[in-house]
What we know:
Elements: H1 7-26, H2 31-48, H3 54-60, H4 63-74, H5 91-109, H6 113-129, H7 133-158
Helix pairs in contact: 1-4, 1-6, 2-5, 2-6, 5-7
Amino acid sequence: MTAVITLGGVAAGGSLLVFTLARWARTGRRLDRMILLAIGLGMGLLAAGCSGGLLAWITAHTAGPANAVGRVLIGGADQAVADVHRDELAVGGGVAITVLLAAALLLARFCCTDLRWHLAIGALSGDLLGRTPGVSALVADTLTPAVNSLGEHILNSLN
């Protein structure tokens, strides 16, 4: 299940990330905020590559509101971005993403609200930007093989 992202949705995800980075640079450059933003961004990028399951369903429903906000950001004229082919994730990769998501949620449970917001903003930005063909290809070449390998190690350790 995938939803079409438009240029407005990409603008919304990109501007959210840029404004968060600008705020971080202006307000003391705390490393913990940047680490959680990066963790969220990575989880969002991986979630955008999921082609089925609950995580794919959740990420598919973020495109509609982001496209609506983005339509306002870019002034009304909106155009769909080319659809991305997602089939590189193996069964082990799905297991690894589930384990990583559980670890990220556990980490968020022990953080303050400000740090949770950085994790959520990173995940949303990663999901929206991960739907573009260029970023999706970059993730497929870098993160996906690593996640598939991690998942195979997890599955092998359970057998």
